[in-house]
Amino acid sequence: MKLIAIPALMFVAAASNAATLYFTAKLDEAQEVVDTGSPVTGEIDFRVDEATLTITMGQGTLSQAFATPITLFHIHQAPLGVNGPVRVDLGPGSFSGLNISFSGQTLTQPVLDDMKLGNTYFNIHTQAFGAGEIRGQISQTVPEPATMALLGLGALALRRRRK
């Protein structure tokens, strides 16, 4: 039993010490401070290397194309329902059809701290809506493998306790 538990504990320890943080945002017009009436929605998932403060992978999709071209794509720093300053420029070049992709952008520690607290948002600006057409508050998520590892550790602990 000890030979099985030790590798499982090592896997959980490695997963919990990993410097990769996971975030998500669901974008729509209702989160804009001034409603735009846009029918476009979207979802973005991305990873941040906590040690280097770098976005290592970002991807998402839109429900449909915007009526006018995208002009800007940013991460802003502010809580839900409040407009805030741009903190990370993701650029319009990260869109291909309905797909969004980005990586390599650097964050500051205060921005990452606010991401963890839910005080940042994605904002997609278009020609028709220069202040932003759709927006989504960023929230931290737990990746599924870590959840499974924790469940496995709990099962091992229960099994050991029974013996």
Task: Characterise the protein shown here.
This protein is α+β, with helices and mostly antiparallel strands and 163 residues long. It has one domain (20-141): Immunoglobulin-like, CATH 2.60.40.200. The protein is built from three helices and nine strands; from the N terminus they run αβββββββαββα. It has helices at 2-17, 109-117, 144-162; strands spanning 20-27, 42-49, 54-62, 70-77, 86-89, 95-96, 99-102, 120-126, 134-141. A nine-stranded antiparallel β-sheet has the order 5-4-8-9-1-2-3-7-6. Helix 1 runs antiparallel to helix 3 (144-162). The longest helix is centred in the last third of the chain and has 19 residues, at 144-162. It is globular. The termini are close together. Residues 1-16 have low confidence and may be disordered.
Separation, N- and C-terminal Cα atoms: 10 Å
Number of helix segments?
3
Largest sheet: 9 strands, antiparallel
Give the helix/strand class.
alpha+beta
Strand order of the largest sheet: 5-4-8-9-1-2-3-7-6
How many strands in all?
Answer: 9
The CATH topology turns out to be: Immunoglobulin-like
Q: What is the N-to-C succession of helices and strands?
A: HEEEEEEEHEEH
Looking at how many chains there are and whether they match, the oligomeric state comes to single chain
Fourth-level CATH superfamily: Superoxide dismutase, copper/zinc binding domain
**General shape:** globular
Structural topology:
Layout: H1 2-17, E1 20-27, E2 42-49, E3 54-62, E4 70-77, E5 86-89, E6 95-96, E7 99-102, H2 109-117, E8 120-126, E9 134-141, H3 144-162
Helix pairs in contact: 1-3
